[in-house]
Amino acid sequence: MPRKIFCIGFHKTGTTSIGEALRLLGYSVTGPNGVKDPRIAKSVLAMADNLVGRFDAFKDNPWPVLCKGLDGRYPGSEFTLTVRPTDLWIRSQVHHFGTRETPMRTWIYGKGCPEGNEGRHRAVREPHRDVIAHFGGRSDDLLVMDLAQRDPWERLCPFLGVERPDFAFSSFEQGGRPVEGNTVPCEARAIGGGKTGRIARQHQVQ
To answer: At what angle do helices 118-125 and 86-97 cross, to 10 degrees?
Structure first.
Protein backbone atom coordinates (compact mmCIF):
# COMPACT_ATOMS: atom_id res chain seq x y z
CA MET A 1 0.00 0.00 0.00
CA PRO A 2 1.38 3.48 -0.87
CA ARG A 3 2.39 5.64 2.07
CA LYS A 4 -0.58 7.46 3.53
CA ILE A 5 -0.58 10.99 4.95
CA PHE A 6 -2.59 11.54 8.11
CA CYS A 7 -3.18 15.17 9.12
CA ILE A 8 -3.76 14.83 12.84
CA GLY A 9 -4.15 18.44 13.93
CA PHE A 10 -7.49 19.21 15.57
CA HIS A 11 -10.06 21.16 13.59
CA LYS A 12 -9.44 24.94 13.51
CA THR A 13 -5.66 24.46 13.47
CA GLY A 14 -5.38 24.88 9.68
CA THR A 15 -6.91 21.61 8.51
CA THR A 16 -8.56 23.21 5.48
CA SER A 17 -5.29 24.83 4.44
CA ILE A 18 -3.24 21.66 4.82
CA GLY A 19 -5.86 19.69 2.91
CA GLU A 20 -5.85 22.15 0.01
CA ALA A 21 -2.05 22.15 -0.01
CA LEU A 22 -2.00 18.38 -0.35
CA ARG A 23 -4.58 18.49 -3.14
CA LEU A 24 -2.44 20.98 -5.02
CA LEU A 25 0.50 18.61 -4.61
CA GLY A 26 -1.48 15.87 -6.32
CA TYR A 27 -2.82 13.84 -3.41
CA SER A 28 -6.40 12.70 -3.06
CA VAL A 29 -7.68 14.07 0.26
CA THR A 30 -10.70 13.35 2.42
CA GLY A 31 -12.04 14.78 5.66
CA PRO A 32 -13.75 15.62 7.84
CA ASN A 33 -15.59 12.30 7.85
CA GLY A 34 -18.59 11.00 9.79
CA VAL A 35 -19.29 14.32 11.49
CA LYS A 36 -23.05 13.78 11.64
CA ASP A 37 -23.02 10.01 12.13
CA PRO A 38 -24.94 9.30 15.38
CA ARG A 39 -23.12 5.95 15.61
CA ILE A 40 -19.65 7.39 15.06
CA ALA A 41 -18.21 5.89 18.26
CA LYS A 42 -19.00 2.39 16.96
CA SER A 43 -18.51 2.94 13.24
CA VAL A 44 -15.35 5.06 13.18
CA LEU A 45 -12.79 2.28 12.79
CA ALA A 46 -14.63 0.56 9.95
CA MET A 47 -15.16 3.92 8.27
CA ALA A 48 -11.48 4.78 8.62
CA ASP A 49 -10.32 1.47 7.15
CA ASN A 50 -12.65 1.94 4.18
CA LEU A 51 -11.40 5.46 3.50
CA VAL A 52 -7.72 4.56 3.84
CA GLY A 53 -8.15 2.19 0.94
CA ARG A 54 -9.59 4.96 -1.26
CA PHE A 55 -7.58 8.12 -0.53
CA ASP A 56 -3.98 9.26 -0.11
CA ALA A 57 -4.41 11.81 2.68
CA PHE A 58 -6.79 12.40 5.58
CA LYS A 59 -7.57 15.56 7.55
CA ASP A 60 -9.79 16.95 10.29
CA ASN A 61 -12.05 14.71 12.37
CA PRO A 62 -11.89 11.88 13.26
CA TRP A 63 -8.23 11.44 12.28
CA PRO A 64 -6.57 13.20 15.26
CA VAL A 65 -8.34 10.88 17.68
CA LEU A 66 -7.18 7.77 15.80
CA CYS A 67 -3.56 8.75 15.18
CA LYS A 68 -1.77 6.31 17.50
CA GLY A 69 -3.77 3.37 16.22
CA LEU A 70 -3.22 4.45 12.63
CA ASP A 71 0.52 4.51 13.22
CA GLY A 72 0.43 0.85 14.20
CA ARG A 73 -2.13 -0.23 11.63
CA TYR A 74 -0.50 1.49 8.66
CA PRO A 75 3.26 1.40 9.26
CA GLY A 76 5.33 3.74 7.15
CA SER A 77 2.63 6.39 7.01
CA GLU A 78 3.42 10.09 7.35
CA PHE A 79 1.74 12.28 9.98
CA THR A 80 1.41 16.06 9.99
CA LEU A 81 0.38 17.69 13.26
CA THR A 82 -0.84 21.28 12.84
CA VAL A 83 -0.81 23.24 16.09
CA ARG A 84 -2.12 26.62 17.20
CA PRO A 85 -1.92 28.57 20.49
CA THR A 86 -4.65 27.17 22.70
CA ASP A 87 -6.36 30.48 23.46
CA LEU A 88 -6.64 31.28 19.75
CA TRP A 89 -7.88 27.78 19.04
CA ILE A 90 -10.62 27.97 21.70
CA ARG A 91 -11.69 31.40 20.44
CA SER A 92 -11.95 30.07 16.89
CA GLN A 93 -13.92 27.04 18.07
CA VAL A 94 -16.48 29.20 19.85
CA HIS A 95 -16.70 31.64 16.94
CA HIS A 96 -17.29 28.97 14.30
CA PHE A 97 -19.32 26.37 16.21
CA GLY A 98 -20.85 28.26 19.15
CA THR A 99 -23.61 26.20 20.74
CA ARG A 100 -24.07 23.90 17.74
CA GLU A 101 -23.53 20.24 18.52
CA THR A 102 -22.54 17.31 16.31
CA PRO A 103 -22.25 13.61 17.14
CA MET A 104 -18.54 13.85 16.27
CA ARG A 105 -17.78 16.61 18.76
CA THR A 106 -19.89 14.91 21.41
CA TRP A 107 -17.87 11.72 20.94
CA ILE A 108 -14.52 13.52 21.01
CA TYR A 109 -15.11 16.03 23.82
CA GLY A 110 -18.03 14.61 25.76
CA LYS A 111 -19.75 17.96 25.12
CA GLY A 112 -20.84 18.63 21.55
CA CYS A 113 -20.57 22.42 21.53
CA PRO A 114 -17.54 24.50 22.53
CA GLU A 115 -19.39 27.52 23.90
CA GLY A 116 -19.76 27.05 27.65
CA ASN A 117 -17.53 23.96 27.51
CA GLU A 118 -14.21 25.63 26.74
CA GLY A 119 -12.43 23.88 29.62
CA ARG A 120 -13.47 20.46 28.41
CA HIS A 121 -12.43 21.16 24.83
CA ARG A 122 -9.10 22.50 26.02
CA ALA A 123 -8.47 19.42 28.17
CA VAL A 124 -9.11 17.02 25.30
CA ARG A 125 -6.87 18.86 22.85
CA GLU A 126 -3.92 19.47 25.15
CA PRO A 127 -2.70 15.82 25.12
CA HIS A 128 -1.38 16.41 21.58
CA ARG A 129 1.93 16.55 23.44
CA ASP A 130 1.46 12.84 24.07
CA VAL A 131 1.26 12.36 20.32
CA ILE A 132 4.67 14.01 19.90
CA ALA A 133 6.06 11.73 22.61
CA HIS A 134 4.48 8.70 20.90
CA PHE A 135 6.55 9.30 17.76
CA GLY A 136 9.68 9.61 19.88
CA GLY A 137 11.79 11.74 17.58
CA ARG A 138 10.80 9.89 14.40
CA SER A 139 11.22 13.01 12.28
CA ASP A 140 10.67 11.07 9.04
CA ASP A 141 7.19 10.11 10.25
CA LEU A 142 5.90 13.18 12.13
CA LEU A 143 5.95 16.83 11.07
CA VAL A 144 4.71 19.40 13.60
CA MET A 145 3.74 22.77 12.10
CA ASP A 146 2.17 26.03 13.16
CA LEU A 147 0.92 27.30 9.80
CA ALA A 148 1.18 30.90 11.00
CA GLN A 149 4.93 30.53 11.43
CA ARG A 150 7.37 30.79 8.50
CA ASP A 151 6.46 29.40 5.08
CA PRO A 152 4.74 26.02 5.51
CA TRP A 153 5.96 24.86 2.08
CA GLU A 154 9.54 25.01 3.39
CA ARG A 155 8.82 22.20 5.82
CA LEU A 156 5.96 20.32 4.19
CA CYS A 157 7.55 19.69 0.79
CA PRO A 158 10.86 18.26 2.06
CA PHE A 159 8.93 16.12 4.53
CA LEU A 160 6.86 14.65 1.68
CA GLY A 161 9.80 14.48 -0.71
CA VAL A 162 8.34 16.80 -3.36
CA GLU A 163 9.37 20.14 -4.83
CA ARG A 164 7.59 23.23 -3.51
CA PRO A 165 5.04 24.96 -5.75
CA ASP A 166 5.76 28.35 -7.26
CA PHE A 167 3.19 30.33 -5.29
CA ALA A 168 2.81 31.19 -1.62
CA PHE A 169 1.14 28.70 0.70
CA SER A 170 -1.24 31.40 1.94
CA SER A 171 -2.30 32.44 -1.57
CA PHE A 172 -4.98 29.82 -2.00
CA GLU A 173 -8.39 29.40 -0.45
CA GLN A 174 -10.73 26.46 0.03
CA GLY A 175 -11.33 24.80 -3.31
CA GLY A 176 -7.70 25.05 -4.38
CA ARG A 177 -7.98 28.43 -6.13
CA PRO A 178 -5.30 31.06 -5.67
CA VAL A 179 -6.62 34.28 -4.19
CA GLU A 180 -4.70 36.33 -6.74
CA GLY A 181 -4.16 35.56 -10.41
CA ASN A 182 -6.14 33.54 -12.91
CA THR A 183 -3.82 30.69 -13.82
CA VAL A 184 -1.08 29.33 -11.60
CA PRO A 185 0.91 26.25 -12.63
CA CYS A 186 1.82 23.97 -9.78
CA GLU A 187 4.15 21.03 -10.28
CA ALA A 188 4.85 18.48 -7.57
CA ARG A 189 7.85 16.38 -8.56
CA ALA A 190 9.35 13.71 -6.38
CA ILE A 191 12.80 14.70 -5.16
CA GLY A 192 15.25 11.88 -5.90
CA GLY A 193 12.35 9.44 -6.12
CA GLY A 194 10.89 10.95 -2.96
CA LYS A 195 9.70 9.07 0.11
CA THR A 196 6.32 8.77 -1.51
CA GLY A 197 7.64 7.82 -4.94
CA ARG A 198 4.96 9.99 -6.50
CA ILE A 199 4.90 10.79 -10.20
CA ALA A 200 5.17 14.44 -11.26
CA ARG A 201 1.77 16.01 -11.80
CA GLN A 202 0.65 19.28 -13.35
CA HIS A 203 -2.29 21.19 -11.85
CA GLN A 204 -3.92 23.96 -13.79
CA VAL A 205 -6.12 26.29 -11.75
CA GLN A 206 -8.68 27.99 -13.93
So the answer is: 130
Prior bond to 32 cis, omega within 30?
yes
162 neighbors 190 (Cβ within 8 angstroms): yes
Distance between CA atoms of residues 80 and 63, nearest Å = 11
Distance in angstroms (rounded) separating the CA atoms of residues 190 and 21: 16
Q: Give the chain's count of helices (H) and strands (E).
A: 8, 9
3-class DSSP state of 168: coil
User: How would you list the strands of the sheet with 29-30, edge to edge?
Assistant: 29-30, 57-58, 5-7, 78-82, 142-145
User: In angstroms, rounded to a whole number, what is the distance separating the alpha carbons of residues 150 and 118?
Assistant: 29
pTM of the entire structure?
A: 0.82
Per-residue pLDDT of the chain (206 residues; tens, 9 = 90+): 678 999 999 989 999 999 999 999 999 999 999 999 999 999 999 999 999 999 999 999 999 999 999 999 999 999 999 998 888 888 888 888 999 999 999 999 998 888 888 888 888 777 577 888 899 889 999 999 999 888 899 999 999 999 998 888 864 444 444 443 322 333 343 444 445 444 333 332 22
Q: Do you find a cis peptide bond into 62, omega within 30 degrees of 0? A: yes
Amino acid letter for position 134: H
